Amino acid sequence: MKIIMLGAPGAGKGTQAAQIAEKFGIPHISTGDIFRANLKQGTPLGLKAKEYMDKGLLVPDDLTCDLVVDRIAQPDAANGYVLDGFPRTIPQAEALTKALDARGEKIDFAIDVEVPDENIVNRMGGRRACSKCGATYHIVFNPTKVEGVCDACGGELILRDDDKPETVQKRLGVYHDQTQPLIDYYMAAGVLREVDGTQEIGKVFEDITAILS
Ligand code: ADP
Ligand code: AMP
């Protein structure tokens, strides 16, 4: 099963993608996680991506598309995957479609997690990410068992640099300009499904499971 998660930054794509990946035994592929891992290792790609991420801008398509096309060709993605944070522009979606066409494949579901802008800023202020494994929590809506410590690996939780309120506003603007058009793109492809992302995390996952099953 090949799934794309759509939605504004902070809509809950990563939270849901992690659960989908676990339930269906497919890899969770997050371009944001890939860039952050590269940055942590100090690779040229990570350092270049940081220039854009810190400003709330998208990393250029030419640094992003090949990375994903290579990743989905890996053996662990043979039975499908859940893409989180990609595609984010029409050219990225077209590059993905082209790569899939060449293999006689297609996306099965594009799930749009709908959350209005006014809810997003609150969510982002409370988001905490594990500095070691990247797992995501929320101080109110999805807290860890021990404050400040990752449930999964014991790593230290941090507030992402790009989750500061001024950067979040910028990212929302970029979302509306460049990413929201993908909703029409995947609707035209007949694979768009919408879920109400303002519900609590478990209920959103129930709705997604009902779509995928
Ligand atoms: P995205 O991957 O779309 O940027 P995340 O999955 O990281 O979003 O979620 C953003 C923040 O909101 C996180 O702190 C997460 O724990 C929290 N969150 C995710 N889904 C919900 C929800 N349905 N209700 C409340 N908070 C949520
Ligand atoms: P995310 O973890 O999905 O919130 O992504 C964090 C940041 O990484 C974004 O604000 C972008 O700067 C960058 N990024 C992640 N995925 C993409 C993508 N598909 N295209 C361009 N930039 C991306």
Question: Could you describe the 3D structure shown?
Answer:
With 213 residues, the protein is α/β, with parallel strands linked by helices. The chain has a single domain, classed as P-loop containing nucleotide triphosphate hydrolases (Rossmann fold, 3-Layer(aba) Sandwich). Helices cover 47% and strands 15% of the residues. The chain is built from 9 helices and 8 strands. The protein has helices at 13-24, 31-40, 44-53, 61-71, 90-102, 117-126, 165-179, 181-188, 201-212, and strands at residues 2-6, 28-30, 81-84, 109-114, 127-130, 136-138, 157-158, 192-196. It has a 5-stranded parallel beta sheet with strand order 2-3-1-4-8, sandwiched between helices. It has a 3-stranded antiparallel beta sheet with strand order 6-5-7. Bound molecules: adenosine-5'-diphosphate and adenosine monophosphate.
